[in-house]
């Protein structure tokens, strides 16, 4: 049962236990809240027996003691029910966020290319918060109310079953109205939320494109479009609220009319001597409480109607398969061997096939080829951003899919074309390469990566803030930070995605100098967009349409007179002065 609850509500085992406990306490709480009614009924029964038989009232001390007992029971049940509920809910939602974060940490990076980042943050923040709300304010109470209604129904049936049927006759009708309004409200809510999304996208686009809007004199058009959207959203919102208010009014009206039926039929049966006056009182008080509890039940059900979608999304995330690999081998060497490698982003459409090559330690292996030939894909497989479907990749004879990913990542440094930078100082951006590096180590890596030249000219030196994603830095400076990170990491394998964008010659020289220092004595695999930068590569692999077209040294490939030679000649024609390091 615990397993079922835990899966059904995306809870931990402890969370499922707490949920059961909170439901039981909520049931007890609902029952205990009926005690003042029993106090009143006891008094009425006393009074009726005094009128009919002259039997004296119970002593005042009895009523005082009974009243005090009720007070203590209500206080205790409220205390235990609320503390158990809130402690359970907040502990569970903190645990859920940690579990989700842990899951996200272990998912392959390919997962992130399938998922939108805003969708993931929505799951971790909003979905968990919505579930938190449902658990603290609705779900256990719903269980408690349903259990209470069953007990109350049995009690009334045993007291006088025909009147029990009369009192419950309005419940299915109110449920029908609730269901009908639910479908209508659901549609209205959907419209409202899609308008909200549209509106936030529109606002975001307007802010992002504020320069173009001004230059192209689009202020009025943009303003009109935004106003129209806001007006539409306001109307839909009012419609949604109206629908809720009307249905709530209708439900309440239907249930209250049940009281009229109880008085009518109860009064008739009392006159027929089929029901005592006391029983009639019991019915009147119990049904008025039952109807208000049913209204509360509908309110709670409305609160949790979208929870199923949230739970499904959270469960889907938990079910994502994690990347395999547990070993932390000591590598005898860092040769990278690729054999019969095949992979497709979509299983039915292979992007690379039959790739075989060996990148030796201490050498530079270059991947070249036309755009779309699969160079970046091979990189993604080498660094386990994606897992290959066929063949193998080994480092020092160990298959990378058997290696613990965290451990593997300590052995590989990647210098990407698109450097991601954080809105902090130059120094802290470099430290990302190795979090526990000392200031001296960071500065030394920065120096080797030729960062001194621009960092020391910045207003606060290495403490200068570089803006959102390094907006205050040039392309070459960004790349040098990325190289400094790789220096700091000092991994034995370096994957280098060379820039294809033109840097000014001073920057290009600085980047090339930094790279030459970085790759010494390592296994280096480089994607070269410009062939002049790989003149000294020991081994060149030419890719075409996801397959190896040819491979060898530069001289061998030129002698081959195939694709590489054509690419080389084309580039020599395009550039005048090759920069060869
Ligand atoms: N995430 C992805 N999902 C689906 N297809 C992809 C994805 N990334 C790349 N591809 C496809 O895989 C093929 C190889 O792309 P890849 O990026 O590896 O080529 P490339 O040689 O690095 O190109 P470039 O030199 O232009 O960077 C291309 O047809 C590309 O459209």
UniProtKB/TrEMBL annotation:
Keyword Membrane found: yes
Chief location of this protein within or outside the cell: membrane
Pfam family, one: ABC_membrane
Ranges for domain ABC transporter: 336-570
Location within or outside the cell: Cell membrane
Record membrane topology: Multi-pass membrane protein
CC terms in the record's Gene Ontology section: plasma membrane
GO MF annotation: an example: ATP binding
Record-annotated ABC transmembrane type-1 domain positions: 39-297
Keyword terms, alphabetized: ATP-binding, Membrane, Nucleotide-binding, Transmembrane, Transmembrane helix
InterPro entries, per database record: AAA+_ATPase, ABC1_TM_dom, ABC1_TM_sf, ABC_transporter-like_ATP-bd, ABC_transporter-like_CS, P-loop_NTPase, Type_1_exporter
Protein name (record): ATP-binding cassette, subfamily B
Lineage top rank: taxon: Bacteria
TM segment ranges: 20-48, 60-80, 145-178, 249-271, 277-298
Source organism of this protein record: Isobaculum melis
């Amino acid at each position: 049962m615990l397993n079922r609850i835990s899966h059904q509500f995306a809870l931990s085992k402890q969370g499922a236990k707490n949920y059961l406990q909170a439901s039981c306490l909520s049931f007890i709480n609902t029952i205990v809240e009926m005690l003042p009614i029993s106090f009143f009924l006891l008094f009425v029964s006393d009074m009726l027996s005094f009128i009919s038989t002259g039997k004296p009232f119970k002593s005042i001390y009895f009523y005082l003691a009974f009243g005090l007992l009720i007070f203590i029971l209500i206080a205790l049940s409220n205390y235990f029910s609320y503390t158990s509920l809130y402690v359970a809910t907040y502990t569970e939602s903190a645990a859920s966020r940690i579990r989700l974060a842990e899951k996200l940490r272990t998912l392959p990076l390919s997962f992130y290319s399938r998922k939108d980042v805003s969708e993931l943050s929505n799951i971790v923040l909003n979905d968990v918060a919505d579930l938190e709300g449902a658990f603290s304010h609705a779900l256990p109470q719903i269980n408690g109310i349903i259990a209470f209604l069953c007990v109350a129904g049995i009690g009334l049936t045993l007291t006088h079953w025909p009147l029990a049927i009369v009192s419950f006759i309005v419940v299915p009708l109110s449920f029908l109205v609730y269901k009908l309004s639910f479908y209508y409200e659901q549609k209205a809510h959907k419209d409202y939320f899609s308008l909200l999304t549209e509106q936030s996208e529109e606002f975001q686009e307007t802010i992002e494109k504020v320069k173009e809007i001004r230059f192209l004199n689009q202020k009025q058009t943009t303003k009109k479009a935004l106003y129209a959207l806001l007006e539409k959203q306001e109307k839909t919102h009012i419609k949604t609220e109206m629908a809720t208010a009307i249905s709530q009014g209708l439900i309440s009206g239907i249930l209250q009319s049940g009281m009229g039926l109880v008085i009518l039929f109860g009064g008739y049966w009392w006159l027929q001597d089929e029901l005592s006056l006391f029983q009639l009182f019991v019915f009147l008080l119990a049904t008025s409480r039952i109807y208000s509890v049913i209204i509360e039940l509908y309110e709670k059900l409305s609160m949790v109607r979208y929870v199923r979608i949230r739970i499904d999304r959270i469960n889907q995330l938990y079910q994502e398969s994690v990347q395999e690999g547990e070993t932390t081998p000591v590598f005898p060497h860092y040769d990278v061997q690729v054999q019969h490698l095949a992979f497709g982003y979509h299983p039915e459409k292979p992007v690379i096939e039959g790739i075989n090559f060996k990148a030796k330690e201490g050498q530079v292996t270059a991947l070249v080829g036309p755009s779309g030939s699969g160079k970046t894909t091979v990189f993604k497989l080498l660094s386990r951003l994606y897992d290959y479907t066929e063949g193998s990749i080994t480092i020092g004879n160990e298959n990378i899919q058997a290696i613990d990913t965290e451990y593997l990542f300590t052995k590989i440094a990647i210098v990407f074309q698109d450097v991601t930078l954080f809105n902090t100082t130059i120094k802290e951006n470099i430290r990302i390469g190795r979090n526990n590096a000392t200031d001296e180590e960071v500065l030394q890596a920065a120096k080797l990566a030729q960062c001194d030249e621009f960092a020391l000219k910045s207003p606060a030196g290495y403490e200068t803030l570089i803006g959102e994603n390094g907006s205050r830095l040039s392309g070459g400076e960004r790349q040098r930070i990325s190289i400094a990170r790789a220096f700091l990491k000092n991994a034995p394998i370096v994957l280098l995605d060379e820039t294809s964008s033109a840097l000014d010659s001073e920057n290009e020289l600085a980047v090339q100098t930094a790279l030459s220092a970085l790759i010494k004595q390592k296994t280096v695999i480089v994607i070269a967009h410009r062939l002049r930068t790989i003149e000294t590569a020991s081994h060149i692999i030419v890719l075409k349409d996801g397959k190896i077209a040819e491979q060898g040294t530069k001289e061998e490939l030129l002698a081959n007179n195939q694709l590489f030679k054509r690419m080389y000649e084309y580039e020599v024609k395009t550039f005048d002065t090759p920069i060869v390091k």
